[in-house]
Amino acid sequence: MNRRKFIQYSAGTCLALSSLRYAFAAVEEQRMRTGYISDKIYLQHHLAPDHPESPQRLIAVEKAMLDSGLLPQLEHLPLLTGVESYLYTIHTRQHVASIRNNYPGIHPVALAVVGGVLSAVDAVCQGRLRNAFCATRPPGHHADNTGREEGFCFYNAIAIAARYAQQKYKLEKILIIDWDYHHGNATEAAFYSDPGVLYFSTHDYLAYPGTGNPERKGEGAGLGYNINVHLDCDTTDTDIIHAFENRLVPAAKKFKPDMVLISAGFDSRVDDLLGCFNITDAGFEELTRIAMSLADEFCDGRIVSVLEGGYNVEGNASAVVHHVKTLLSFRA
To answer: Could you give the CA distance from residue 277 to residue 235 in angstroms, rounded to a whole number?
Structure first.
């Protein structure tokens, strides 16, 4: 090869390698983005006039997200359709039939919540996104198989998402973090004997639904995989962060999760209508960072976070903004 051809060949090779580097960088930049689930269908249902679980919760979230400048930075995901069969991985046919028949206006909305959450799981598990937040309602972590509404909940989307990740993506270990003021009784029940799901909940054991006794630690093969932490009224950022650092982190490091799901209930925020904790937006940022550090260490950052409670409309919206901002920007 003469000198001229060698230079041409070398230049072409360098150009090709440079193009590959740019392509890989573009793919990695896309993968590091945060997904966002939101849809007008979530504004459709009303339990009752002046009910705290109202469409205003999400209207305020959307406005706060827009005002903060976060929305253009997020990857907006479509809802997955045809998801009713996945309900039966957690719920009985009798429960689903009862919800459909007794709450005909709510069934399609609650089903769309499941579709949104599973779409987020797909995007994260397929490596298209690093993490995702689902601005959905109604919430779900109280939805047991009673055939009726429980704590404003109808279908347990976070539990369905865990089963979906286990079955579709063969993920063996799912960590569910629940910082809602109220204990996620139905999520606990769904995985109480399952060693493949570590359920960690901070809550007020004395509040609705009266479950979440710290002595309940799982049963059978699932013994030790259910962690309930009772926190008193007036709990502060320091208190809940201490619980996360001293109870969640050691258990999660031993568990080594393949994915992290968050039941992001912001009724644990200061001044909530239905809670008595004093967690601030800065506190939720730190809880998010702890969850992300665990996800980065063990599962390539995979997190799907789903809105649960939060009934001070403006406070809930502010907490969501700080939570999503951290999901978007934090690097462990």
So the answer is: 5
